[in-house]
Amino acid sequence: MKVVNTQGDNANGSRVSDTLWEQAAAEVHSREAAGGEEDRGEAVSERTVFLMGSKAGGKTSILLRCLDRDEPSKPTLALEYTFGRRARGHNTPKDIAHLWELGGGTSLSDLVQIPITAVCISSLSVILILDLSKPNALWETMEKLLQAAQNQLEKVSSQSQQAQRAKHQPPVHSAARVFPKDYPDRELISPFPVPLLIIGSKYDIFQEFDSDKRKVVCKTLRFVAHYYAASLIFTNIKSESLMSKTKSFFSHLAFGLDRGKTVSCDSTKPLIIPAGSDSFSQIGSPHATDVDITSLHAKNPKDLWKKVYERVFPQEHNTSEQRELKDPAKDPQYSELQIDAMRAQKDQELEQYKRNASKSWKGLELGT
Asked: Is the pTM of this model over 0.85?
C-alpha cells in the first residue's frame, strides 16, 4: 500500500511515494544518525570476577545476593560460571560481568588456570571469601588460594609479555597495578597483581567469639588486606545492611560503580575497610595474647603475623582429605548411588586386570 502525502516530503526526508516500510526504515536511520555521536562512547564494558574461598563458606549465597537473584544456593561443582548484566541508563548497552566461582576450598586450587587467562587479565579482579566461624582453617585457606591465584597471574602475565615481545608489540595485557605516591605504606606493601576484595563471611557467628580472639582475627585480616592493597569487609547474609555494603564492593569490581565511603576499623563491629583506607601504624603490632613475639623467628612481617595467628588458632592440616578431594568423583557431595556402584565394579575389574598383566610379564621374564 502506498501512502500519499499532499504536503510533499516528510520531515524525515522520505518521499511521498514511500511505502510504510520505507518510511519506518528512514525513521530508524534518522534516529541512529541523531544519536550516533552520543552512542559512540557507549561501548559495552566486560569485566571478570573470580570468587574463591573457604569450603561451605557462603560464596554462592553471597554471589546470588549481590546479583539480586532470589534462588536457593547449591554446593558449587568444582568451578562454575555465571554472568551479571547492568544497564548504565535507559536504552543503553548493558555492561557484562563474567563470574567464576571455585568450589572445594583449597582442594581444587589447580583450577585457577581456567578463569585466569591472558584474555581477561587486564579486566580481572579476585574476591576471597573466608569463613570467620572457622578461624583454625582461615590462614591456610587464605594463603594457599592467594598463592595459587598469584602464581597463575604471574605466569599468564609473563607469557603475554613474551608473546608481545616476540611480535615486537607494546605490552597490552598486564597484571601490574599502579598506586599513587601518597598511597599508605607504599614502599612496605606487596600489592596483589589485580584488585582484590577479602570478605569475612558468617559474621553473625563470629561476633559471639571471645573478644580477644576476635581482635586477633580482625587485626590479622586488616594486616593481610593492607599488605596486598586489598579491600576488606565482614558480612552476614542475614543482615540487609551488611549485604548492601557488600554488594557495593562487589558492584565496584564487577561494573565499576562507586563502592561507598564507609570505613569501620572497630573490632567490636563488622570491619569495612576500602583499599587504601588503612595503614600499618593504625593496625599496630600483632595482638599476641600469651605469645612472646621476640621468641618467634620470623623471616618478614607477614611471617610474624602468621606465626602469632597460628599460636592462637592452630591450623587444621587436612592433607589426606585434600588429596582425596583432588578427584571430585570421591567427594561425597557429588555421590550418585548407581554410578558409584558401577565405578566401584570397574575399579575392581581394573585391579584384577593389572594383577593378571603383572603375572603375564613375570612369566615372560622367567621364560627368557
From this structure: no
